[in-house]
Amino acid sequence: LxxxxxxDTAGAVCRWNSAGKYCExxxxxxxxxxxxxxxxxxxxxxxxxxxxxxxxxxxxxQDECRNNGDCNWNDNEQRCELQCSFISDxxxxxxxxRCIVEGTLDAxxxxxxxxxxxxxGIRFPTEQGCNNNLMNDxxxxxxxxxxxxxxxxxxxxxxxxxxxxxxxTSATTCETRCKYLYKAQPNCLNDARCMWDNQRLSCASKCDxxxxxxxxxxxxxxxxxxxxxxxxxxxxxTGGVSNKTACNSTSVCNFNDAxxxx
Length: 262
What we know:
Helices cover about 25% and strands about 25% of the residues. It is α+β, with helices and mostly antiparallel strands and about 260 residues long.
């Protein structure tokens, strides 16, 4: 059938392929058992219904997409996609914009995951739901008011540093910045990784945890000097003019007489 209207008339048997502009057999007509179905281009055997079904990415209307429980309609990109939970290839899951690999941390802090799920912002739209997630692999980002993947579950420095709440302390370790962990000074100081910022009255990660200049300088308490991350001079020497000599004795600090600050 060469015409769209003719193809639609035979809807029980045929469907119009709006991408390729041609008429083709409905998957459920093309095959009635799993093996031959999976050999038909654009079709797959849906185990839950035992019916040969159109692949999600070959489904071009919103209604048809949502009628298949394996699929999800992407409103932003106006296309049909396979639900994250049906993706078995964890690399494909990790590369998806709307899915993440859900995993657990072993004793060595290595993420082990074999389940593909919707990204946290979709699963947990509220702060309470995000922070009470039983898997404990999500955290609420107050800057963007959205649930995101917990820092410890981010396997690479690039994924770690993609979110301001995380700090990549090594090639394999990603930690939540102290600023987002503690609001009270006593709790902050009880964590060996953290220090209290008296100027901003907030918790901050200790400078020596940062291995790269850009992440070091993203912490307002720190500066990059002598190829390492260290406290800014004004934090290092806080006693005003009484610490002028000590301030000037360092290779990276100078005392400012006009402001009385190192």
